[in-house]
Design goal:
Length: 310
Amino acid sequence: MVSQSTKYDHLFKNVIPNTIEGIRIFGKNDNYTKPQDYDNVLNLENRIWADLFQNLEFLLDQYSSREYLLGLRSLPIPNNMFPDFEAISPLIENSTGWTLISVAGFLDEELFFDINKKRQFPVTDIIRQSPRFAEKYAGIDIKNDEGYTPEPDIFHDIQGHIPFLMNKKYADFMWEIGSLGDEILKDERGLGPDLVAHNLKRLQNFAWWTYEFGLIKNTGDTDSFRRVANDMDYEICGAGIISSLDEVTNVVKCAKGESSRSKFLPYNIEEMIMTCFDYSNIQDRYYVISSMDSLYESFRANQRLFWFEG
Ligand SMILES: [Fe+2]
């Protein structure tokens, strides 16, 4: 595990304590894989999945990005029961070379980036609000209501992230982030543990404000993919928003001027990488990219930002 605080922390803005104490974090020396026990999924768990999915289905049809909608429609991700990892994984592999790897819980950075570098995406088979979730996190203060996204959770992992991995450019972008994280951690430039941890936090902030909680400008070009036209200025591309009814509702309300809880900020990579986040609540800001291509280009053109040398 990379140390949580470094002497460079004062450079970050919006620093909010964001560790959840007591959660087991798996590393590469642990037995971190855990096959999905698909035959023993409870009716109750399928019911939770169905409620979560169906409450979001039409909102996402109207407001999520094109990449998401096309991916979702081409994968066996049911709206009424748990998805079967073994049915999904080969289809993603055919499209973009990524596969799903079923894991036991949170992974440390080293393992996470190492897995991503192999084009594997870690997914968990436990769902929020279920007895298995309660048992696993007993005694831990982790948010666990139906509207929010506690990670890791099968709904966030599969419904939120996986459809995007059917898109080649997006899948390559995810691979580049994983590879950069892996390179930073290996510290072949000899920066030392503090700078490694600091640069990793920059990369985690970047990931957070883009593929977890990012928005795209709505140009109106994607309405042909929707049953109902998108009537706000943004499309949702962040998986953390997509898998949370509360977060989607918050984005829509703020975009329509019905709430001022969160603000919309223009994409600014230098600002985003230095902006920390709180993962235990609705986000106070969303960064808006002009297109997915511009996001990929910006990431490639600004690699130096993740090699801060102090
Ligand atoms: Fe996520």
